[in-house]
Every structure is written in structure tokens, then in C-alpha cells.
Design goal:
Largest sheet: none
Order of helices and strands: HHHHHHHHHHHH
Distance between the termini: 37 Å
Number of domains: 1
Mean pLDDT: 84
Radius of gyration: 19 Å
Structural class: mainly alpha
CATH topology: Ferritin
Number of helices: 12
CATH architecture: Up-down Bundle
Low-confidence stretches: 187-193
Helix content: 55-70%
Strand content: under 5%
Number of strands: 0
Length: 313
């Protein structure tokens, strides 16, 4: 059985909402960002803001397709929380002088632009179980590696306060995510794929889904290499992927979820640079997308204008 009571979780989510105005963005500590840190931290934070929106778009899609009213409401909250996380991270960028003269954040890299466009076009048509398995894997990587790295290297206490709130939200996202994966593993014989799963995989192997892999894989590689270059030890990535496998596979139901096993295997391969059969072609895709001219990229979605550092909520 699932280890999370979703009705109680929904009540907890309702009672733990917060707003940007709850953080004192003018408090001392911004001067602790060093000149050496500043340019890499600006790029890291800009990517993080956009990645929050990718997560939010995924939750918005799950809010439409989730099988129960409780889950649909939970995912609606999660979508709003990802927006709030993006706003909080932009507020940190404002605090650290990383926005332009019009208070706009740096534009997303080409890989993020392509993924955002793909999510806008196709996320609503994805099988709920696919999103319900991929999202926890990405959030474990975000929580267990990227955000932990940020807090280990940045001394500004306001950053730590903001991410304490963000990480509390993310812990609930993960609790629900792992519970949902276990639900879809129940009743399946380990090592065997039932007919329902076969039909679901058949729906997954469509041209636009393969296109999704073609834009997501390079983004994961790019983010992986960027954060390692910024100073994250590679073993931290391995630990994050091991955490996903350990928690997701802690029960027989979880281990029996075939999608969980596929995603877990892929995330471990992505983290391991020694697997040249995977990384050589994906690196070529990264270099190819880097060369796409700005005029040829998809237009930014309308919600970009909703990103704000201002404490209005």
C-alpha cells in the first residue's frame, strides 16, 4: 500500500502555504556573495528559475489527468508552489544584482527553451503515470544535488531561509510522488509487464514522445556538466540517483513499477560520465542545440511575464 495518506497530505499542504513577503529580502548577507561566485551563480540561478517552471508545467498537466479529486487538488497546489519557488529564486537574483536594468532575468539556454516549448505543446497529452514517475526523479536530482550544492556554497542567510521553505514544499512533492509510483506498482508481478503497461508503453512510443526525449536528454546532460563545473562533486549526483532508487524501490509495489525501473536506470546512466555509449551522442545533441540561432528558437510562453521578484502574493 502507499505509505502516504493523501487526504492528510492535502490538508498539510493547505496549512503550510507561504508567500514571498514572509522573507525579508533586504536583510544583511547579500555581500557574502563573492566576485568569483557571482557569474556562475547568476547562470545557475537563471537555469533554476526556468526549471521550476518546467516542473510547474508538469504538475499542471497532472492536475488535469490525475485519477482522483484529491490528487488533482494536490497537483494544483504543487503547480502554484513551483511558480512561487521561481519567484523566490528570482528575488534572490534581484538581491544579488543579477537582473538587467529592467529587472529581467537572463534568458534561458537553448536546451531549456526547447524543453519549455515541448512541455507547452505536449505535456497535457502525456500518460499520467509517465509524468508521475519522471517528476520525482527530477525533483530528487534538484533537491538532493543542485539545491544542496547551492546551500553548501552560498553563505547568504536569506538564501538559506528561502530554500528552507522551498525544500519543505519539495519534501511533500516527493512524498506524493513516491506514493503514486507505489500505487501503480501494486498488483504487478515483479519482472513482468502486464497488458495495461504494454498499452501504456505503446502510447508512449509516439513521435512527439521521442522528440521529448531528444530535447530532455541534452538538457539533463548540460545541467549535469554545468553544476559539476561550478564545483559540485560528481559523487553527490550519484548519491541523489541512489536515493531515488532506494526510496522508490523500498517496497515490492515500488520495485514492480516498470516505469520506475526505466527512469531509475536512465538517471544513473546520465549521472555516470563513464558511459560513453550514452554520453557521446547526447553531447553531440547538446552542441547541436547550442548552435541554434535565437531567431529559430520557439517563442517564450505567455507565463514568462508572470515571473516576478516582487513580494505581491
Amino acid at each position: 500500500m502507499a505509505t502516504v495518506d493523501l487526504d492528510k497530505m492535502l490538508e498539510k499542504i493547505r496549512n503550510t502555504q507561504w508567500a514571498l513577503k514572509d522573507v525579508d529580502w533586504e536583510a544583511p548577507g547579500a555581500e557574502l556573495i563573492t566576485e568569483e561566485q557571482w557569474p556562475r551563480l547568476r547562470d545557475f540561478m537563471a537555469d533554476l528559475v526556468w526549471i521550476e517552471h518546467i516542473g510547474g508545467r508538469g504538475f499542471a498537466a497532472m492536475a488535469k489527468s490525475a485519477p482522483t479529486k484529491t490528487l488533482r487538488e494536490i497537483y494544483t497546489y504543487f503547480c502554484a508552489e513551483e511558480q512561487r519557488h521561481a519567484n523566490a529564486e528570482m528575488a534572490l537574483m534581484k538581491r544579488w544584482g543579477m537582473l538587467d536594468e529592467n529587472d529581467r532575468m537572463p534568458p534561458p539556454n537553448n536546451n531549456i527553451r526547447l524543453v519549455v516549448d515541448w512541455m507547452e505543446r505536449y505535456a497535457d497529452g502525456l500518460d499520467y503515470r509517465v509524468l508521475g514517475t519522471i517528476t520525482p526523479a527530477l525533483e530528487v536530482a534538484l533537491d538532493g544535488a543542485l539545491c544542496k550544492f547551492l546551500l553548501d556554497t552560498v553563505k547568504d542567510p536569506v538564501c538559506h531561509e528561502a530554500f528552507a521553505r522551498i525544500n519543505d514544499d519539495e519534501s511533500r512533492h516527493l512524498g506524493v510522488g513516491f506514493a503514486v509510483m507505489e500505487m501503480y506498482g501494486q498488483g504487478k508481478v515483479s519482472g513482468r509487464i502486464n497488458m495495461s503497461m504494454m498499452r501504456m508503453l505503446g502510447r508512449t512510443l509516439k513521435p512527439h514522445i521521442l522528440l521529448g526525449a531528444a530535447v530532455h536528454f541534452p538538457l539533463l546532460n548540460k545541467m549535469r556538466d554545468n553544476v559539476v563545473r561550478a564545483g559540485l562533486p560528481e559523487e553527490k549526483l550519484y548519491q541523489a540517483m541512489a536515493k531515488f532508487e532506494k526510496i522508490g524501490g523500498r517496497t515490492e509495489a515500488g520495485r514492480s513499477n516498470f516505469l520506475f525501473r526505466i527512469v531509475s536506470a536512465h538517471m544513473k546512466i546520465m549521472a555516470d560520465r563513464s558511459n560513453r555509449f550514452y554520453h557521446v551522442p547526447v553531447d553531440l545533441m547538446v552542441r547541436a542545440t547550442d548552435r541554434i540561432p535565437q531567431w529559430a528558437l520557439p517563442k517564450k510562453p505567455g507565463w514568462v511575464g508572470d515571473v516576478t521578484w516582487k513580494s505581491t502574493d
